[in-house]
Specification:
The protein is an alpha/beta fold and 118 residues long. Helix content is 41%, strand content 29%. The protein has a single domain, classed as 2-Layer Sandwich (Transcription Regulator spoIIAA). Strands 1, 2, 3, 4, 5 and 6 form a six-stranded mixed beta sheet that branches.
Length: 118
């Protein structure tokens, strides 16, 4: 798995490419953790358009950071998720905890209401 991290305006786009398993979840944890640590108000878009698989360890990364992100008045939105990955999210109930949209543009629109102190 590779991870691309892009900064576009007020948003940080994290794009995992390939499979997130127990081993590669460590790199994903580092990427998300760095954003949460280094930004006053983290507005994170997880671009899942090239994410082909995610294990429970990968999902655990997001669950771990939801509260710290929201305490900082930020948010995390998932976009472009493939149906096989969405299926895992729905089985585990994560689709009820986070917003999932079709593409990065929609994610930016959803996050535009929280741009206060970035």
């Amino acid at each position: 798995m590779n991870i691309k991290t892009l900064i576009e305006g007020n948003y940080v786009i994290i794009k995992p490419i390939g499979e997130v398993d127990a081993f590669s979840a460590i790199a994903l944890d580092n990427a998300v953790g760095d954003v949460v640590k280094n930004y006053e108000q983290p507005l994170i878009i997880l671009d899942g358009s090239e994410l082909t698989y995610i294990s429970s360890a990968g999902i655990g990364v997001f669950i771990t950071y939801l509260e710290p992100i929201r305490k900082k008045k930020g948010d995390l939105i998932f976009s472009g998720m493939r149906k096989e990955v969405l299926y895992v999210f729905s089985i585990l109930g994560l689709d009820k905890l986070v917003v999932i949209v079709e593409n990065v543009s929609q994610a930016k629109e959803r996050l535009s209401h929280v741009k206060e102190s970035f």
